[in-house]
Every structure is written in structure tokens, then in C-alpha cells.
Amino acid sequence: MKTIGVLTSGGDAPGMNAAIRAVVRTAIYNGVRVLGIEQGYNGLINGNIKEMQLSSVADIIHRGGTKLRTARSEEFKTEEGRKKALNVLEVFGIDGLIVIGGDGSFRGAQKLNELGLPTVGIPGTIDNDLGYTDYTIGFDTAVNTVLDAVSKIRDTSTSHGRANIIEVMGRHCGDIALYSGLAGGAESIIVPEVGYEVDNVCKKLLKGKNRGKLHSIIMIAEGVGNASQLGEEIEEKTGIETRVTILGHIQRGGSPTARDRILASQMGAEAVNLLLAGETCKVVGIKDNKIMSMNTNEALEYERDLDQEMYKLTKILSI
């Protein structure tokens, strides 16, 4: 294999730059040329491709976002669009492709592999919603970003004696809410895998108020329901003044944590090693603190299960 392409696709995640850096430097160390594809599959179709050198990835390991930028591509979802992408790869002499992104990005790589191109995927998504791996790149940073917000919100919540609902990302996976809620001492954690009953949330708030608690934090994942509506119901049922904070895309930004930088570096290097070893249609992950790989088709069949023991612990600690 003489030339490897690398792209980032879908939502950006802190640590993607560290993964790009590892891909480029590991490939060059092994005498392999690297081409960076800008703006994901959309950029691939349009030939937005440039050669990357060691200097191309200097001073980026600590930066959020993605140097290669990202975009979604409706055209790539079509058979004609994928054939066009494959033609572009052939024109540039790209022998294998590394895709950094989530499940949608992996499905794109899977389709290219079916057309004969060796591919390896690196999990880059803050939601931590890929079931085959314990953690995805960007998740740890997102949790710490939420935790920082919780600390600030708690200060003003205590001053006013309010309840605060904090909405975090996670349409189908509640890991950000679960981890940041446990670390931040939230009274209630609401995730899509479990759901909630308003009366139970209210009872917990009133119990806390009756024993002199000055504030309450309710963590809710965006996929569960309407945070503003929940706030109105809580005020109506309890009389406790309730404010809603929707953190939104602030969770995607910021300098990646040490954990995300290390994970991304390890995964980026392993992705290159897999291609050089002749492996194809693979995704990299981490299990039991060890970097591993798996067939893409098999990995995409895994469903992400909520950590029930951790969820149970949040119930015990928030009484």
C-alpha cells in the first residue's frame, strides 16, 4: 500500500485532530504517502484532496474540531455518488481509506469497501453511541465540558434556591447525561433508554427541599423529551422555580482531554497498521482498556446498552 486517504465525517468531536495527526505520522513513518480529504464524503466526491506532510499536522493535537473539516453528503448516499467517489480515489491513487466518524460514516466506508476499496474506521463521536467499543473519541471531553457547566450552574442555582434542568446531547444514547450526571451529583438523570415519570422527579425535588437542600440539578438527554415543557410541569406541580439550560453544540468544541488525545493517537496509529497489514472493512475500538479491531459489518450490528449498574448507582447516590 503506497497511498492512504483520511477523512472526517458527520459531527465533529474533540480528538479528531489527534487521530488525524496519528494517521499521518504513522503512515509517513512507514514510508506511506497520506492524502487528506476535506469536508468528508462531500469533499471526496468533489476532489477536495491534498497531500499531507509531517508539518501538516503540527500543533493540532490539542485543538478541537477537525483540521480536515466535515460535511454531510446526500449525494454519497446514492449509488451514483459512491461510484463517483471511487473514481476520484482511483484518480488520486488512494489504495486505502481511513474514516473518522460515527455509525453513518462507517456505513459509508462499508459501501466503499463493497466496491473494492480497503477501509478502516475510527470512532469519533461525542455521543459514545457505538456498541462495539467502550469509548469513542470526543466523549470524555464532552462529559468534562458538561461537568464544567454543571459547576457554574450550581453556583447560581444555590443562590436563588432553584431547580435547574440541563439538557445535553444524546438522541438515542444517554451516556453523556449518565456520566456527567453521576460526576456532577445530579438529583435526577433522564436518559432515552429508561425514560421518566414527572411525578417521580417532583417527589425527589420536594424531598430534597424539605430537608433543606438549596438547589437541584436535573440532567436530561435531548432524545427523551422537551426540557422546557418538563420545567413548566415541575414548577406547576412543586412550586419550585425551575430554569432550563440547553448546552447544545458547546459540547462538541474545546480542547480534547488527555484521555481523548491518547485514545485518538492509539486508534489512529492502529488504523494505519491494519491497512498496512492487508486488513480491510475494519473498525478500531477499545475494550477493557485495550485497542482492538473488528469487522465493520459486525461492529454496526452491536447495540449500545446503558450501563445499568452505573444508572442504579446514580439512584442510590441521589436519594
From TrEMBL:
Q: Phosphofructokinase domain: which residues?
A: 4-275
Per the entry, which co-factors are needed?
Mg(2+)
Q: Where in the cell is it found?
A: Cytoplasm
Gene Ontology biological process terms from the UniProt entry:
canonical glycolysis; fructose 1,6-bisphosphate metabolic process; fructose 6-phosphate metabolic process
Record keyword Transmembrane helix present: no
Q: Could you tell me what reaction this enzyme catalyses?
A: beta-D-fructose 6-phosphate + ATP = beta-D-fructose 1,6-bisphosphate + ADP + H(+)
Indicate which residues the UniProt annotation says bind ADP. Answer: 21-25, 154, 185-187, 211, 213-215
Q: Extract the GO molecular function terms from the UniProt entry.
A: 6-phosphofructokinase activity; AMP binding; ATP binding; fructose-6-phosphate binding; identical protein binding; metal ion binding; monosaccharide binding
Catalytic activity, EC: 2.7.1.11
Q: Which residues bind ATP?
A: 11, 72-73, 102-105
What is the top-level taxon of the source organism? Bacteria
Keywords recorded for this protein, A-Z: Allosteric enzyme, ATP-binding, Cytoplasm, Glycolysis, Kinase, Magnesium, Metal-binding, Nucleotide-binding, Transferase
Activity regulation: the record says:
Allosterically activated by ADP and other diphosphonucleosides, and allosterically inhibited by phosphoenolpyruvate.
Pathway it works in: Carbohydrate degradation; glycolysis; D-glyceraldehyde 3-phosphate and glycerone phosphate from D-glucose: step 3/4
Which enzyme class?
A: transferase
What does it do?
Answer: Catalyzes the phosphorylation of D-fructose 6-phosphate to fructose 1,6-bisphosphate by ATP, the first committing step of glycolysis.
So what family is this one in?
Belongs to the phosphofructokinase type A (PFKA) family. ATP-dependent PFK group I subfamily. Prokaryotic clade 'B1' sub-subfamily.
The record's listing under PANTHER family reads: ATP-DEPENDENT 6-PHOSPHOFRUCTOKINASE, PHOSPHOFRUCTOKINASE
Q: What protein name does the entry list?
A: ATP-dependent 6-phosphofructokinase
Q: Which organism is it from?
A: Senegalia massiliensis
Gene behind the chain: pfkA
